[in-house]
Specification:
Structural class: mainly beta
Strand content: 35-45%
Number of domains: 2
Low-confidence stretches: 583-591, 614-623
Largest sheet: 7 strands, mixed
Strand order of the largest sheet: 7-6-3-8-12-13-14
CATH topology of the largest domain: Neuraminidase
Shape: elongated
Number of helices: 8
Helix content: 10-25%
Number of strands: 44
CATH architecture of the largest domain: 6 Propeller
CATH class of the largest domain: Mainly Beta
Mean pLDDT: 93
Amino acid sequence: MKMCYPRHGQGSYEESPTDYYYADLTGDWNSDGDGYYGEYPDDSGVDFCPEVFVGRIPVYGTNYTSLDNILQKIMDYENASDLSYRKKALLPEAVSGYADGCPPDIQTDGADLGEDMVDRYLDHLGFSWYRLYEKAGIAPSPYSCEANLTEDNVIDEWQNGYGLVCWWAHGDSTGAYRYVWDHDDGDCVLESGEDAWYNLFTSSDCSYLDDTKPAHVYQCSCLNGYPENSSNLGYSLLKHGAISTVSASRVSWYAVGWTNPLRYYADNASIGYYYMRELAYRNNTGPSLFYVKANMGNNWGGSSWMNKFDFNLYGDPANNLYSKTLWKDWISCNGQTIAKVGIDTGPGDSLHMVVRTGDGSIWYRERDNGGNWSDWHFLNGKTSAAPAIAVDGERNEVHVVVRGTDGKIWYRMRGSSGTWGSWQYLGGYCSGAPAIDIDEVRGNLHLTVKGRDGKIWYRMRDSSGTWGSWQYLDGYTSHTPAIAVDEYYNYVHIVVRAMDGKIYYRMNDSGSWQSWQYLDGYTSDTPAIAVDGATSTLHLVVRAGDDKIYYRWMDDDGDWSSWEFLGGLTYAAPAIATEKTVGSEASYYFVNRGIHVIATGSDGVLWYKNKASDRWNTTQTGFSDWSGWKRLGAPAVSSPPSIAVDTSNNVYVATRAKNSNTIMLKIREGSE
């Protein structure tokens, strides 16, 4: 590791060995030329933007046997067939500090970290968990848990196999420790001799673990990854009990009174919260750690830098909690359609589908995350165009908007109870299919249509079920407009193909429409747009007049990139999607999980291209390379494809088979 000095000149805890230096290939870590690398604020050339992702497998002396064992374990882990234990999280959380007062109380309780992880993503993603909180002393944790926090309880439970382990405790190079206010002399002030220290987990405990079920471990402690000590706890776990560890090479810094994840300080608990979150959401270890740290603030100055330097990855940076990316075989959805298939993802990573059959009838079907399908449900109506669907995962509501056979615009909703309401006429007529998107934070449904005369119209339904008036957007389009909602900023984005083929963009900022903006390009079909929840970036993909596929993005400041040719030709409108955020969880997103494009190739079959999370730069002006196009194979298709991504980064592609009109679905599980 490179020895750096983020707190140089502060008199204590000045240095930190780090692998971040090797990840930031373009930064100048000694920009002031004094030989002390990584000084805050003197070395302003440190940009924290990783060009490579670094993981370390230490080798001390000639201990090649341990190296061979670790490498074999990594290969076995990636090829394992039984992954059931990996959706379990072990959460041993100690107390870091107490508050004086009567009665005695906790100042900083690690249980808050465990509770936030459970409430904000583990439960949603279908993980089971086992919490061990501090119950000893005169100021025990108030949170309920599965067992009291003791060294024996941690060892015993860990032996049952866990995919994720995240603790918060004090530490040194070979152990993590509990800190307990043991007794009081009556003055309600924690004084010397009134506290007690106990082991939480030590290097010598690793031998008790089941190394055939290794865990990804985040060690929110000081010094656990001290590289000069060959028995450091991070490395000891990597040798036996863990598939990867993230631990501090020196002292790490916590936020006193911490209760929720923070972005501004790069405190040790928040790094752990977000890192574990990225792993749970199917991202690889290296990108997860470096992008989390890169997107943290520096409000503590040198101490923020030190935490970013401190927490290093022992293990393979390309490792993933789940199996490697797999495209499943095409599956028939036991139905037929004569139009584009409408799909969206919903609660519990369910998939929702609405189609138009040969006689114009509207049918709906749902698939849960276990692959179980509901029966087809006739929605008692007919449409003359592809139906539109949007699912509010926060409220468990399904919204469908269609163009009736008479051209009228109709709306229907399935509520959280699972019961469908009646069709509601929305007033007005449209030409072609409607387009909708849902704001899961506010519960607002946004609708845009092309009127019979080509005018562009917009209407919104709020969370109470009240529809606003139709708004004419002062423009004309030859195709269905594209619409996407930015839940974080409350923006509504619309992109259209004008009558002359030019591409125009307009945005609604919290109820106020801005002017139309010409995007310096032409398209021969309906544009496709999507907003990612990580950076509030709007992504646009179009089929140009020469059938080439072009891409452009706009950042959250309203600045557009240049057009980028993605390679290849398409003979139908391409589709684009980003991972769906989890409603109120949107404000906790800041690591992008990728964008996904699907297009119909000149061979009549579908092709897929993406920027996965480990291909993103952290600066908006420096998005990195796309993947190559991947041919998804048969069947040949006869309608534009649909694409959706759930909160676990599973990708769903739906289409209509050319010869049979059969509804077909293909699923990609996990991150690349």
